[in-house]
């Protein structure tokens, strides 16, 4: 990090003129323990998909089968995340960690189904501790396999109708925020549904009283299979000292769980964007992360992470390519 700071000061630009990109390049040099750090390429968006028993509470207007249908769309390359990943030069990998409907495998679909959807977190634990652990380990394994095959940057993605409800519950559990501050409109709900969703999150928290010092217990009580897998994915990236670009509210809720397991994991996290979901801002503040982009997006899938990848690449590329005052013969002030 000291070497990266020193190099930034010698490049042909006023000190600090690249704003947040400079500190990002310094963090990534520290993570990789080398200056300049590797360019974040090749990169893969891992889209973890799962379904949710809490769907039964009417927290989203979308039918549960949209999860499986969107997985097919990801495999066919037709979703927003596929387009943004193509734009950024990233691969997309789809992991079924908990989809309710059996899926037919495609080239980029990994079947790691732990159970066909969670139980309803508002009436009992969403998962057993063993199921939550198994899902975390799916994410750890996916991160390890991607790094093994050469990935230099991992990006979080999610698909799961109703998954903003467990995300809100996780954010409330880990940050202490109230249900209303942590809960948003997800994939689009009216005022009456939002009121019910906040009530469902509040009821779940009162029922389970999740202990933030026991992240596996929190994931089991009020989480989701994709949230747990993303937690493991983020921890896996950090363990390999590979940067992981965090997407929206689902990913930031998983990032809180990862930080509860291992506070040092935050050093590997790059917040791709600020999701319009209010819980995302609560989670980012708790993690002490500033997002790279703020475009009012609220989609998930890994779309905001994919969009941020070229910004991360640019931050690192500066350390590789920009001339120094010395080498370019530019006068200093
Ligand atoms: C067509 C469609 C594509 C999506 N892609 C991501 N999401 C996002 O919206 C869902 C969460 O919102 P909620 O909790 O309100 O159901 C997740 O699947 C998330 O990935 C989508 C949602 C829909 C409907
Ligand atoms: O920010 C997200 O990840 C998000 C927001 C709305 C719906 N689904 C996901």
From TrEMBL:
<comment type="function">
    <text>Catalyzes the synthesis of alpha-ribazole-5'-phosphate from nicotinate mononucleotide (NAMN) and 5,6-dimethylbenzimidazole (DMB).</text>
</comment>
<dbReference type="InterPro" id="IPR036087">
    <property type="entry name" value="Nict_dMeBzImd_PRibTrfase_sf"/>
</dbReference>
<protein>
    <recommendedName>
        <fullName>Nicotinate-nucleotide--dimethylbenzimidazole phosphoribosyltransferase</fullName>
        <ecNumber>2.4.2.21</ecNumber>
    </recommendedName>
</protein>
<comment type="similarity">
    <text>Belongs to the CobT family.</text>
</comment>
<feature type="active site" description="Proton acceptor">
    <location>
        <position position="301"/>
    </location>
</feature>
<dbReference type="InterPro" id="IPR023195">
    <property type="entry name" value="Nict_dMeBzImd_PRibTrfase_N"/>
</dbReference>
<dbReference type="InterPro" id="IPR017846">
    <property type="entry name" value="Nict_dMeBzImd_PRibTrfase_bact"/>
</dbReference>
<keyword id="KW-0169">Cobalamin biosynthesis</keyword>
<dbReference type="GO" id="GO:0008939">
    <property type="term" value="F:nicotinate-nucleotide-dimethylbenzimidazole phosphoribosyltransferase activity"/>
</dbReference>
<dbReference type="InterPro" id="IPR003200">
    <property type="entry name" value="Nict_dMeBzImd_PRibTrfase"/>
</dbReference>
<keyword id="KW-0328">Glycosyltransferase</keyword>
<keyword id="KW-0808">Transferase</keyword>
<comment type="pathway">
    <text>Nucleoside biosynthesis; alpha-ribazole biosynthesis; alpha-ribazole from 5,6-dimethylbenzimidazole: step 1/2.</text>
</comment>
<dbReference type="Pfam" id="PF02277">
    <property type="entry name" value="DBI_PRT"/>
</dbReference>
């Amino acid at each position: 990090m000291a070497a990266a700071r020193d190099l930034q000061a010698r490049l042909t630009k006023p000190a600090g003129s690249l704003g947040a990109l400079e500190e990002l390049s310094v963090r990534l040099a520290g993570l990789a323990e080398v200056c300049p750090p590797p360019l974040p390429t090749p990169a893969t968006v891992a889209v973890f998909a799962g379904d949710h028993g809490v769907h039964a509470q009417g927290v989203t207007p979308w039918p549960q089968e949209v999860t499986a249908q969107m997985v097919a769309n990801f495999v066919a390359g037709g979703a927003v995340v596929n387009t943004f990943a193509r734009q950024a030069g990233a691969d997309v990998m789809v992991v079924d960690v908990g989809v309710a409907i059996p899926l037919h495998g495609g080239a980029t679909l990994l079947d790691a189904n732990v159970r066909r959807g969670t139980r309803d977190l508002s009436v009992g634990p969403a998962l057993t501790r063993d199921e939550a652990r198994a899902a975390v380990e799916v994410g750890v394994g996916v991160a390890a396999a991607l790094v093994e095959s050469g990935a230099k940057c991992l990006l979080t993605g999610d698909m799961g109708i109703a998954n903003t409800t467990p995300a809100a519950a996780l954010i409330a559990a880990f940050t202490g925020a109230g249900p209303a501050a942590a809960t948003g409109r997800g994939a689009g709900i009216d005022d009456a549904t939002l009121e019910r969703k906040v009530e469902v999150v509040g009821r779940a928290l009162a029922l389970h009283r999740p202990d933030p010092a026991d992240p596996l217990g929190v994931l089991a009580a009020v989480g989701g299979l994709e949230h747990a897998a993303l937690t493991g994915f983020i921890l896996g990236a950090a363990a390999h000292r590979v940067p992981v670009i965090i997407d929206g509210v689902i990913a930031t809720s998983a990032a809180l769980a990862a930080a509860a397991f291992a506070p040092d994991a935050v050093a590997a996290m790059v917040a791709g964007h600020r999701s319009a979901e209010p819980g995302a801002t609560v989670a980012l503040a708790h993690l002490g992360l500033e997002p790279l982009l703020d475009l009012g997006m609220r989609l998930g899938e890994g779309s905001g992470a994919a969009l941020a990848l070229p910004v991360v690449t640019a931050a690192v590329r500066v350390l590789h390519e920009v001339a120094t005052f010395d080498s370019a013969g530019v006068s200093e002030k």
